[in-house]
Sequence to fold (646 residues):
Amino acid sequence: HSLSLSLTHTPAALQWMRGMHMHNVRGIVLACLYPTAALGFAIPPLPSFLPRPALRRLGRGVSWQRITAAMSRDEIPSFATGVTIGQGKQAARSLQDYGAAVIFVPQAQANLTIARDARKAGKLWLGSADSPLSPYSDILVRTVLARNRPEVNPEQELSGCFLAVDLPNERQTRAIVVAVKENLSMFAMLELAGKAASQAMGVAPASIALVDAGLGVGLATQMMEAGVAAILAACGPMPTEMQSGPTALAGVEALSIYSSSLDAPQLLRIQASAEGTNLCRYLTATPANALDNLGYRTWVHRLAKKEGWQVTELDEEKMRGVGCGAFLAVSQASEPGASMMRLVYQPPPTSKLSTSAPLVLVGKGITFDTGGVNVKGAGGMYGMKRDMSGSAAALATLVALTRLEYSRPVECWLAIADNSIGPKAYKPDDVVRAVDGTTIEIVHTDAEGRLVLADTLALASRKHAWRRREEVVPAEKGGGDSSSVNTDAAEWLLYPGESEPLVPALLIDYATLTGACIGALSKRYAGAFSNREEMCSRLIKAGKMSGERIWPFPMDPDFDSALKSSVADVLQCTVSSEADHILAAVFLKKFVNEDVPWIHIDLSPAAKPGGLAHVTTEETGFGVRVSLSLILDYWDEVAIKSSQVK
Fold:
């Protein structure tokens, strides 16, 4: 056992444990777990996504069917990391309890060390005699001086540098010193914390300490939030079950915070956001043959049962009856399985807002996109398993709000389909009728996302229920069964006891909708659009505050002229694709109830090679953090007031 303790924090230990696993000596592997310290106030740990044995698995890979089984299991897992978060004990030598420690130092004080005033600097950022850093002051200062020799460059700044050293204790704690510059953006802090977390995770620690070494109150709050978010993202599970070689999943069990800047509610919000982001990343990375339409729907049903959400669903047969001709045009070439799902979260009965107008989230869930008749090339089609990122972001935001016991009702609408090629596929020049009666001339079959969203937005915003209550569209004109087209749609939207559907207080939709948005903003920013011009400044603020940056685009009335059709009410898109991200939003706006504040987020950063901010995987989980900022921090500025809801 003593030998195991000395090995568990070295790369050699991982190889040793893999070898033990190969020989099924699992008892010895379990004996390597070392107790960790996380004292003071503690938030109850959320359950991990995978069972403990699977999470700790370091041996041979398993067959690819594992991931399919994981998506269809009866008991839906949580995407929380299982990491216990608590306040670190303020005592000298307590860092010896951790496999790694990330130490955030103000840049000005770190620069003072470089200027050879090491003794004064040590007092400033290494803390008092009982500080956990004090036993290691000499080695930390020597490390800073060795890395940044003032005789070479006396004016050298340390901002953003990482100085890593193994501390002289039994665990050989890996200490990573990070110099933090004043006035950094939240994105820059997350990026900084993500790099530090990657270095900390490199020694496979069972426990990690985050140390505030003299940051000011405001800076400390943001930097420690970024640090916690980065560690939880690094611990998030990803679908690696198909790999045949060894896979080593993060095994962090405890995270201790040496700072008074974060309180329990703030930590709970960070955990909820991280769980949602991890869920979004996992779903987005899952192969399309494991997460097809039917598999996705089944998985969502089981998740809804686990979370206590109400579920209603329009499958293809019901959509034909209601008249969702735009959605069905996309799905008609595929095997049966497309669906429009509506999940409803009801707040605790004690909430004074439990009967208020709902927040509505809508997500594009194209499980795979071939482009249809206008088929994509090889480069464009690879990665199209991620075309359901919008639905993943909406679902993940709902999970985060559920964890926080959000005070208002929330609806989450998922437009689940795939865009396939076949004899029944829709074609350019076709004309289809949406659920609100609008006829659409098809121009390009690879612009399928705006079609499935058109019908979904019309129902979710109650545009259909309000505008077509007494209007019947005959079946021969694409309206389906005329005896049920209006009644079914209206009743489907009612809450118990309602006589009329309640107009949403705010509607946010998420979609990987256009390549034009990537061309305009790259994969670092998301594009944002709204039917309320005054909302643009709030969108920018929420993006900056959350570190998930978004930038609003115009939708002036003259853009409508580009979508005029000679044979239908509106063109789906244009042939030239000029400003397609703007025209896509202009198109979607036509299907949103004008009484509802609406935000459309074009998810350019849903997948970025090398990751983004604190997330190092290509699947970034973008959308959850900025959504929580909009909903929790800016609600009064972006939503309809209760007295204004009709």
In short: The CA atoms of residues 131 and 440 lie 67 Å apart. The two ends are 68 Å apart (CA to CA).
